[in-house]
Amino acid sequence: xxxxxxxxxxxxxxxxxxxxxxxxxxxxxxxxxxxxxxxxxxxxxxxxxxxxxxxxxxxxxxxxxxxxxxxxxxxxxxxxxxxxxxxxxxxxxxxxxxxxxxxxxxxxxxxxxxxxxxxxxxxxxxxxxxxxxxxxxxxxxxxxxxxxxxxxxxxxxxxxxxxxxxxxxxxxxxxxxxxxxxxxxxxxxxxxxxxxxxxxxxxxxxxxxxxxxxxxxxxxxxxxxxxxxxxxxxxxxxxxxxxxxxxxxxxxxxxxxxxxxxxxxxxxxxxxxxxxxxxxxxxxxxxxxxxxxxxxxxxxxxxxxxxxxxxxxxxxxxxxxxxxx
Length: 325
What we know:
The chain is of the alpha/beta class. Helices cover 49% and strands 17% of the residues. Strands 3-2-1-4-5-7-6 form a seven-stranded mixed sheet, with helices on both faces.
């Protein structure tokens, strides 16, 4: 596992002054917010590197890319976070080796640590998605999860992806918020946070309340989140952006409607209460509920609800040219 020694160090505890400065500097906000989240991100989003998340990541890839010849040789994850997407795809047989990049030093650090713990062949760089620090025609596959909505110039980032892809190489980005989905998810989150943090002030429920310092820190993180989330997408728009960037076979898909209406209040509630209150039985119940609602979305609601109303969007495209023999 390698990272360049001259890459910046993580800054996991931003001050109020730094947060205020970040309101006027989006890329500083991206770094501060994601450094802040890096060490707790996997727990916050129930990310793992076992069968559950391997199946989830592989499912997203297969839905976006369709039937393709596997495995790819070398893959890049753009805006890697903790490595969730690439590391689980590698375990799922999608790629043999990989590289991770993120604007946040903290996220690159955690992604490389996760890769090392899993015994995966991965290197990493602290890097801007709009200027990817790799040579032309380096990768067979570029992937990302919940990253495009953080990038100021999405079309430029996709052009960079196509530049570093080999001819015939593919990119797959999943987990991007649709415009309608982002609207109802944010409102559900705000309402749930308000209700939970209010009722846990009552003496009988005091044990369900996180320490005020943690709630305050979460509120500051939420303030930065509003700064770092730059875009929402219409599926048609995503396809048009990919085509303008130079991709062929650009196709967008969407998922999670009932699952999102259930999942966002659940995630917000879990962020507002102490972890020890959430039993294994509770977590298994929530996971099984999400699976059932996702199946409802896929088998029924996709046939009657327009794709733009689903929460998650994904986009795939291919670099023109025949693959090298």
